[in-house]
Amino acid sequence: MSKQTILVVDDEQDLLDLIEYNLRKEGFNVIKAENGEDGIQIAKEMKPDLVLLDIMMPRMDGIEVCDKMREDAELKQIPIIFLTARSDEKTEVEGLNKGADDFITKPISTTKLISRIKAVLRRFENPEEAVKKLAVHDLEIDKDRYIVTRGSEEFQLPRKEFELLYYLASKRGKVRDRQTLLNKVWGDNIYVVDRTVDVHVRKIREKLGDHYIETVKGVGYRFKE
């Protein structure tokens, strides 16, 4: 089995070296970048399995890097874990809403970091996601390309909106509460407020119409049969 590759983007050289040492001990390939612009370019060239991304960096901060990756057809499927010295909830929610998959506060426990990396990678190997293309109602939801098609129209949803739609569509007719949706789409080791689900459902409805996802009052959401 080939080694998985982690791209680490951080402007602190000592931290880069520490993370590289520990990840290589765990059997990962590691590539490094010291700023966001280089990180994006290396990601395009190397297509890593996961990106560890610092938020506070010169030239281009991590939030902007994440935003650009999620807008890029070649990069938007790569999982991202934020590393940051900022621990305020606003920063965390902003990062997760931009499409990050986890959020780790510095100073970093290498044991915890490796555990979280493996957890995110496992989510992307989840057998529940083996079906890559769903045809539901008049929509085709293509997980290989992260594109939703309706007739001749194509919709490129931001990553978490797409994954929420995909998950609900794969369980169509079944009600899923907000906590289940948070666990399945954002991960069960990440703290995200329930309101995050509501905001993403609203954005999906704005783009596709409000006749696909149904609100079940006091419970959660379901994709209509």
Gist?
This protein is of the alpha/beta class and 225 residues long.
What Rg, in angstroms, do the CA atoms define? 18 Å
* Name of the CATH class of the largest domain: Alpha Beta
Estimate the strand proportion. 15-25%
Main sheet makeup: 5 strands, parallel
| Shape, per Cα inertia axes | globular
CATH architecture of the largest domain: 3-Layer(aba) Sandwich
- The SS-based structural class is alpha/beta
Mean pLDDT: 85
Poorly predicted runs: none
Q: Tell me the series of helices and strands, N- to C-terminal.
A: EHEHEHEHEHEEEEHEHHEE
Number of domains: 2
- Order of strands, main sheet, comes to 2-1-3-4-5
Topology of helices and strands:
Layout: E1 5-9, H1 13-25, E2 29-33, H2 36-46, E3 50-54, H3 62-71, E4 80-84, H4 89-97, E5 102-105, H5 110-123, E6 133-136, E7 139-142, E8 147-150, E9 153-155, H6 159-170, E10 176-177, H7 178-186, H8 195-208, E11 213-216, E12 220-223
Parallel strand pairs: 1-2, 1-3, 3-4, 4-5
Antiparallel strand pairs: 6-7, 7-8, 8-9, 10-12, 11-12
Helix pairs in contact: 2-3, 6-7, 6-8
